[in-house]
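dumping this here so i dont lose it
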């Protein structure tokens, strides 16, 4: 987290000018807090790194598609990378310009295509020949022409976690180069309702070294030159996302400036048209460091002797990255607290009924019931991957802007555990009445 966003003042951790324990007490926990200044700063870094080279920054919505976050980025002029029609619709509803939306994903349904065509999105990043044929048919039925890019497989190893590498032939994403070459040549004759817009690729996520992007440029620009020689022109090259952020002390981000200057330099030097528009799709880099997940300690429980358990009210349902990838997030006390000599490291776990429900291991925190902890660098792939497993409610989210805090969802109270299913009607489902909730609140507990 950049020092200007998260600062310790008299021992208390603050985001911008708001003490984090205050957010926890006002809105309840688990609660994500995002810094507006940090989100806008990251967008400006990506955008301005291009200088006057034609470009579009398409924020990857999967990282965090909370309406308030999308609104902020749309107001900055951001484009969006979507992977479902739900994301496309969320972006448009939050003020995103359809002409700046790219639609990726291996499984687009006919209905998703129809809605995206009706909205007039910038382009479909097609991932298979069958998808092209389907899109051609759907566009024809609607009397429209669908703008397409082929997502090619650069076959570059991103040297990241196996579950988040995407640019290899063994991954489900994209089209192999030879097949893509043939498809590009066939589009004008075989798919009359498609119009070639560009080329896209994405090699993986949380990439901390520039080298895989250099290899990607080798492959992509060589391929673009071959296409040009075969008479295929592209309006844009989309290099995808993937720039990594520091999760552990000592790690360094792969900076937007370094990534963008590589793409601009290589396109200017090697593309048939040096002014070809460049698209990037950063997700994590845009939002990860803007967010923390606040959680309250419920219990401290003795462990096997070498460590204790710190049971908090956040869980894998709020932040699944540690359970899913063994990912590391720093966890800190938000109040003025230092561990007492001799205290044991703790494994921070949630209340969910899974042994993998761990948020961190080996942490020196010396926690007590009621302490508010902050799980750092949690803005990306946190709230957007949250679930209601174990009938938990979704985490609260707020936006911090200077000394103002704005809720981005309804407050995290028990009424939020809504029942979207349709009951059979065999039993009468008694409502949780406002009076019952009020009584619980008056009895003093947090929700
Ligand atoms: C097509 C595509 N674009 C962009 C992204 C965003 O990646 P990141 O959050 O690593 O920038 C992803 C996710 O890996 C992706 O699959
Ligand atoms: N969800 C992953 C990243 C996947 C990127 C999407 N292809 C994470 O938390 O790191």
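and the seq i came up w/
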């Amino acid at each position: 987290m950049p020092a200007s966003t998260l600062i310790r003042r008299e021992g208390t951790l603050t985001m911008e000018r708001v003490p984090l324990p205050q957010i926890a007490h006002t809105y309840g926990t688990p609660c994500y807090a995002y810094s507006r200044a940090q989100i806008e700063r990251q967008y400006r870094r990506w955008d301005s790194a291009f200088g006057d080279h034609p470009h579009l920054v398409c924020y990857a919505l999967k990282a965090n598609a909370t309406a308030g976050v999308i609104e902020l980025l749309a107001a900055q002029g951001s484009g969006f990378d979507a992977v479902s029609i739900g994301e496309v619709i969320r972006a448009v509803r939050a003020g995103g310009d359809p002409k700046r939306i790219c639609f990726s994903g291996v499984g687009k349904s006919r209905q998703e295509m129809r809605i995206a065509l009706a909205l007039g999105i910038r382009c479909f990043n097609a991932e298979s020949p069958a998808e092209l044929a389907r899109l051609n048919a759907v566009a024809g039925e609607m009397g429209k022409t669908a703008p397409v890019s082929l997502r090619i497989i650069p076959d570059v190893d991103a040297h990241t976690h196996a579950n988040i590498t995407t640019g290899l032939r063994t991954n489900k994403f994209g089209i192999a180069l030879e097949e893509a070459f043939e498809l590009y040549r066939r589009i004008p004759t075989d798919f009359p309702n498609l119009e070639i817009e560009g080329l896209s690729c994405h090699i993986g996520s949380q990439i901390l070294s520039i080298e895989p992007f250099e290899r990607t440029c080798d492959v992509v620009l060589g391929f673009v030159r071959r296409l040009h020689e075969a008479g295929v022109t592209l309006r844009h090259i989309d290099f995808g996302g993937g720039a990594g952020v520091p999760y552990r002390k000592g790690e360094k981000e792969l900076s937007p400036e370094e990534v963008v200057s590589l793409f601009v330099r290589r396109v200017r030097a090697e593309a048939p048209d040096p002014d070809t528009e460049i698209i990037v799709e950063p997700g994590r880099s845009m939002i990860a460091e803007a967010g923390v997940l606040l959680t309250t300690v419920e219990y401290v429980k003795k462990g096997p002797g070498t460590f204790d358990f710190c049971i908090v009210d956040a869980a894998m349902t709020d932040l699944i990255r540690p359970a899913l990838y063994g990912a590391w997030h720093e966890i800190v006390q938000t109040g003025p607290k230092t561990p007492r000599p001799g205290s044991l490291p703790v494994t921070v776990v949630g209340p969910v009924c899974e042994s993998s429900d761990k948020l961190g291991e080996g942490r020196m925190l010396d926690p007590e019931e009621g302490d508010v902890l902050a799980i750092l660098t949690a803005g990306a792939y946190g709230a957007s991957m949250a679930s209601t497993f174990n009938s938990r409610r979704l985490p609260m989210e707020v936006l911090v802007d200077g000394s103002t805090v704005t809720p981005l969802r309804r407050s995290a109270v028990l009424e939020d555990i809504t029942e979207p299913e349709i009951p059979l009607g065999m039993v009468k489902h008694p409502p949780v009445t406002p009076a019952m909730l009020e009584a619980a609140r008056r009895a003093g507990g947090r929700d």
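Residues 60, 63, 81, 104, 166, 202, 205, 240-243, 281-285 surround pyridoxal-5'-phosphate (ligand 1) (CB under 6 Å).
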